[in-house]
């Protein structure tokens, strides 16, 4: 991102979580050297670690509130875990971004969070009414490694001219060929929720198939190779086989530790099913996958684990799962 006469002098980033940390670090690495990146984060340890790492690439300020951050930033990115956090960060009358953004300041607000479409539209309306700038929804996909490497996919909703304005900033955290303009406000979130829904349903089918093969006596590695050279192939079968030992880099190889948590997958799956209901789209599998994740967030096999730990519900028989066999 080259510096021009119209390049903002101040950038802000709120939310240095598992995904936000890497995104903010790539923003600081690629934004103009003479601009300042201001950050806000509740976790003191992450604030300290981020400043230590990011300061190697340019000026970094750690600020105490979104209001303070807004007062010194022209472009502000937010990466937060749920809708209420986004609403509070923007709209709190004492500490929020809008409280620090005077009318006519023409700020660019980019929300990278995965939240309900209705919640994002409400925040966008609040930004418009404040006349402090423009708001776009830009949820991301690709996981922590892509966030760290600056190779995320982004799905963007809002006015086309606002997307064009944001594109140089988005290219600091994602691949140019994987940044998609989806349409009107909320369209980015709708696309993200649909994608996650399909991924979660396909993973459940993969788990059912692998469990069936193992119970029959098939070699799971041979079965995985057959699937990946046949019509059953999907992203999860290529990268995230649920059987430990089949793929060295799958979450199963880490006992489903780290990564996108079961609770987050539960939330985004519920959002997708709600979206289907809101637009009147028929669904056969929506309530099924939602029920699986409702069970998963209460199961000791899945709670706090990477979301693909739902495979354990198929193979653990303890009265809380779905299956009749035990994981070896």
In a few lines, what is going on in this structure?
The protein is an alpha/beta fold and 328 residues long. The protein has helices at residues 20-30, 44-54, 66-70, 83-91, 117-130, 143-149, 160-170, 187-216, 220-228, 235-239, 262-279, 286-296, 311-315; strands spanning 10-14, 36-40, 59-62, 75-78, 107-111, 133-137, 140-141, 152-157, 174-183. Helix 1 (20-30) links the parallel strand 1 and strand 2.
Descriptive account of the structure:
The chain is of the alpha/beta class and 328 residues long. It has two domains: 10-185, Rossmann fold (3-Layer(aba) Sandwich), CATH 3.40.50; 191-315, N-(1-d-carboxylethyl)-l-norvaline Dehydrogenase, domain 2, CATH 1.10.1040.10. Helices cover 45% and strands 14% of the residues. It contains 13 helices and nine strands. The protein has helices spanning 20-30, 44-54, 66-70, 83-91, 117-130, 143-149, 160-170, 187-216, 220-228, 235-239, 262-279, 286-296, 311-315; strands at residues 10-14, 36-40, 59-62, 75-78, 107-111, 133-137, 140-141, 152-157, 174-183. A six-stranded parallel β-sheet has the order 3-2-1-4-5-6, with helices on both faces. A three-stranded mixed β-sheet has the order 7-8-9. Helix 1 (20-30) links the parallel strand 1 (10-14) and strand 2 (36-40). Helix 1 (20-30) runs parallel beside helix 2. The protein is globular and about 65 Å long. 46% of the residues are buried. Residues 2-6 and 324-328 have low confidence and may be disordered.
């Amino acid at each position: 991102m080259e510096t021009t006469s119209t390049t903002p002098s101040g950038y802000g980033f709120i939310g240095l979580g598992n995904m936000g940390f890497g995104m903010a670090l790539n923003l600081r690495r690629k934004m103009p050297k003479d601009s300042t990146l201001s950050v806000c984060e509740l976790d003191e340890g992450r604030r300290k670690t981020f400043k230590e790492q990011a300061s190697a690439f340019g000026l970094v300020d750690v600020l105490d509130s979104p209001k303070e951050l807004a007062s010194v930033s022209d472009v502000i990115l937010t990466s937060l875990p749920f809708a209420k956090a986004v609403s509070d960060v923007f709209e709190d009358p004492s500490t929020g971004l809008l409280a620090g953004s005077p009318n006519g300041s023409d700020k660019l607000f980019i929300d990278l969070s995965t939240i309900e479409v209705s919640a994002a539209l409400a925040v966008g309306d609040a930004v418009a009414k404040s006349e402090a700038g423009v708001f776009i929804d830009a949820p991301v996909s690709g996981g922590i490694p892509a966030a760290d490497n600056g190779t995320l996919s982004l799905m963007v909703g809002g006015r086309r001219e606002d997307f064009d304005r944001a594109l140089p900033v988005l290219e600091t955290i994602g691949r140019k060929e994987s940044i998609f303009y989806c349409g009107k406000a909320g369209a980015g979130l709708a696309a993200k929720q649909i994608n996650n829904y399909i991924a979660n349903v396909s993973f459940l089918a993969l788990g059912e198939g692998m469990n069936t093969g193992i119970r029959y006596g098939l070699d799971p590695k041979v079965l995985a190779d057959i699937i990946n050279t046949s019509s059953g192939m999907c992203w999860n079968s290529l990268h995230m086989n649920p059987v430990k030992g089949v793929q060295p880099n799958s979450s199963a190889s880490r006992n489903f530790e780290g990564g996108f948590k079961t609770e987050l997958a539960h939330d985004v799956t519920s959002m997708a099913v709600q979206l289907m209901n809101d637009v009147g789209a028929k669904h056969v599998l929506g309530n099924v996958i939602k029920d699986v994740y409702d069970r998963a967030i209460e199961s000791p096999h899945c709670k706090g684990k990477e979301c693909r730990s739902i495979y354990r519900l198929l193979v653990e028989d303890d009265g809380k799962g779905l299956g009749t066999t035990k994981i070896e």
